[in-house]
Amino acid sequence: MSGIKPARRWQPAFSPFKKESLGKRLLAKLEVSVKGPLFGCRMCGNCLLQETAFICPMECPKGMRNGPCGGITPEKNCYVDETRKCIWYTIYKKALRTGRENTLLEVLPPIDWNKAGTETWGDVVRQIRKIGTSKFIGGIVSKDTVKKSEVWDSVFKTIRQPEWWQGDSRYHASASLEPVSELESRFRAGEFVVATEVTPPIGAGTDKLIRDIESVKPYVTAINFTDSSSARPKMSSIACCKVAIDKGTEPVFQVAARDITRTGLQSTIIGANAIGIRNILCITGDNAIIGPSPTSNMNIVDIDSVQMLWILRKMRDDGVYLDGRSFKNLPKIFLGAATSPFASDPVLQAIKDHKKVNAGAQFFQTNLVFEPDRLDLWLEQLDKRNILNKVFILIGVAPLKSYKIAQYLHTNVPGVSLPEKILKRMEKAGESAPEEGVQIALEVIDSVKRKQGINGIHIMTLSWESIVKRIVTESGLCR
Ligand code: SF4
């Protein structure tokens, strides 16, 4: 929040990497002394304030630049630091209040770190001079709202959307007319798809991994391998995907922005494609705060999930890297993203989801769902935004094995909350808790199967892979 009252802020006040000229340093000091108290500015040097309801997004611990992550607490606080409101929740609320909702859809670029700590006022002045000072002032004071916004954009859009990014608010369909994976093919054929997760091992042995893959293989279309879920290191997702491919199974490669830079992302995806990986799930990833100690870097991510989608879509469809280099042999990718239907309120969540679809998401995997009826409001919002026909949705379902696991998910997993009645059922079940957990999962599946706009389920096994066969069979989804 803007800092009229001083408050702890997450991102450091950035310093320039190079020694700037005295004039630029003075201008930077002046800029931070005005924008700091007014807007909470951290001097990232890549100002987006016009698009973020004049609240600096750099107050988010992860430095998210395209909307909230899925970890907002039920009180709308940040899960990394629960003493603070989620800054993106505040930005969205203010944008809605002030009628600037549409500005939230523009896909905003990652930071150009070479500019961190430097002033942006100089750029603004130069841009105003370029279009003509009197034309700018005339446009800004004009009563004609179209003219006003054109003049405004001619200055500020040029600054926030550099040549190498050129993000927009439009939907970009995949350039490929043919499905690139079995998962995409089944979605397109209108099947109700079943995917699952196999937990990556914590050691280098693959025997159990292979057993788990073989045990779920006949019942699912694709297997997801998490990328150090809960910020705990395990076998990498890409290695598990390769094992799955070797066993004749289709993997979903999960990539968490938490552990990767823009350079790493692009190289990894080219490499992953070369070894046969087609389905890519782009997530921001759980913050290190929920991982084991000593706690890893809790601060800024280099690219958020929306930016990952944008970069990978352009690599796939246009054959260009972020730096503008073009290449042949384009990767074949079916792009996915995660969503948390209940993390924020459905109206706000739908805005973020809309942005992901525009950026390139072709399928969604939701966070765990225990109250399927609550999905209706969210689906209604997606429908209003006309995106249900542009994205395939898999609902996350988990068989709870014990009351302890239910409690753990409820208290420790960002974006997941279990209703009181489910917690009570699990507690009351005592020794029959695993059976109760399966019944709950079957009830959820039965309900989501009948909802318009849902294209399948994603069974998050929570290391209980052997239950997949029973769930798929008893829910009538066996192929
Ligand atoms: S909940 Fe997520 S988006 Fe919101 S401030 Fe915290 S880390 Fe940032």
Distance between the termini: 52 Å
- How many β-strands, per DSSP? 8
Based on CA atoms alone, the radius of gyration comes out at 23 Å
Give the neighbour order of strands across the main sheet: 1-2-3-4-5-6-7-8
The portion of residues forming beta strands comes to 5-15%
Poorly predicted ranges:
1-6
Task: Write down the overall geometry.
Answer: globular
- Secondary structure class reads alpha/beta
Largest sheet: 8 strands, parallel, barrel
Which cofactors or ions or other ligands sit in this model? iron/sulfur cluster
Number of helices: 16
Helix content: 25-40%
Q: What's the average pLDDT?
A: 93
Order of helices and strands: HHHHHHEHEHEHEHEHEHEHHHEH
Provide structural commentary:
By secondary structure, the protein is of the alpha/beta class. The chain has 16 helices and 8 strands. The protein has helices at residues 22-39, 87-97, 121-131, 133-141, 145-160, 182-188, 207-216, 237-246, 262-274, 305-318, 346-359, 375-384, 403-412, 420-429, 433-449, 468-474, and strands at residues 193-197, 222-225, 251-256, 279-283, 334-339, 363-368, 392-397, 456-459. Strands 1-2-3-4-5-6-7-8 form an 8-stranded parallel beta barrel, surrounded by 6 helices. Helix 9 (262-274) crosses helix 10 (305-318), helix 11 crosses helix 12 (375-384) and helix 14 (420-429) packs antiparallel against helix 15. The protein is globular and about 75 Å long. Mean pLDDT is 93; it is low at 1-6. The structure holds iron/sulfur cluster (SF4). Residues 60-62, 64, 68-69, 71-72, 78-80, 86-88 line the site of iron/sulfur cluster. Iron/sulfur cluster is lined by residues 60-62, 64, 68-69, 71-72, 78-80, 86-88.
